[in-house]
Amino acid sequence: MKNVTGTAFIVAEFRAEENEEAIPLYTDHVVKIWLNEETKKVASHIAQSSPAAKEMVKLRTKYFDDVLSNQILGGCKQVVILGSGLDSRAARINGEGVIYFEIDDRATLQLKEETLKANKVTANVCYLPGDYVKDGLIPLLKQSEFDFARQTYFLWEGNTTLVDKKDVIFVLEQIRDNVPNFRVSFDYMSEKVILRTTGYQDINDYIDKYESMYAPWITGFEKIATLADELHLKVIENFSTADLYAQYRPRRSLESNLFKFYFVCTLENVVGGVSQEI
């Protein structure tokens, strides 16, 4: 759990468990190619210590899957996944002419590519090894056949809480300034969680347990609309995972107060005060 590659397996295990539901929120039959008894054992240990983490992964997977599917149905042919880990969407959510660009560390992408090939899983994807903060998102994309003039959907999942706020803003600025026609979806924590000011002790205890196993959460946003306004972007959707839980799991009780402070959102570019329709 002390490195990004390791956490990718944990997230994959959490995601895979939804396949066992009687009526799953989504199906991901690709993810199993990366999993084994060892990854299952570690993920089970993490889930026991931080049970909310597993459900939050499933909720955000469902939301991002739906947004991505709608973008592709609407004609979007270019998808960029930042910090892609063991994301399987290039193999399971695709369409004619759709190409994915995935950015992550070299070891993760190499393992991913080799395993997909070994299991004869096809995906129209271009792997871009690198750090989208240190190396710069745009320079990385310029190393490929990415078309900056083409409408693009950016997916940024499970990253923003671990990245400095200035770097989160810089990534969004890079996208805004170089890709005129885009939408971007990402998840984020309320700043109250980061500052330990939610008023819920169970949230503070959860953070302490999580950070002891992985890494500190350093960035949160209190009002995503304020960030969007400052960047001249438009908020298309913004939901707490408590909202998603009520929608997706209507017959179940909320597991943790943290769901009220963990969000998913989708933003789009605004040029001359007019949003770009995708």
Quick recap:
The chain has helices at residues 4-17, 37-49, 51-73, 89-92, 106-118, 132-142, 165-178, 191-195, 201-213, 224-230, 241-248, and strands at 78-82, 99-104, 125-129, 152-156, 182-189, 233-240, 262-271, 274-275.
Describe the structure.
The structure is a single chain. By secondary structure, the chain is α/β, with parallel strands linked by helices. It has helices spanning 4-17, 37-49, 51-73, 89-92, 106-118, 132-142, 165-178, 191-195, 201-213, 224-230, 241-248; strands at 78-82, 99-104, 125-129, 152-156, 182-189, 233-240, 262-271, 274-275. Strands 1, 2, 3, 4, 5, 6, 7 and 8 form an 8-stranded mixed sheet that branches. Helix 3 (51-73) crosses helix 11 and helix 6 (132-142) packs parallel to helix 7. The radius of gyration is 18 Å and the shape is globular. It starts with a helix and ends with a strand. Mean pLDDT is 92; it is low at 272-278.
Helix-strand layout with pairing:
Layout: H1 4-17, H2 37-49, H3 51-73, E1 78-82, H4 89-92, E2 99-104, H5 106-118, E3 125-129, H6 132-142, E4 152-156, H7 165-178, E5 182-189, H8 191-195, H9 201-213, H10 224-230, E6 233-240, H11 241-248, E7 262-271, E8 274-275
Parallel strand pairs: 1-2, 1-4, 2-3, 4-5
Antiparallel strand pairs: 5-7, 6-7, 7-8
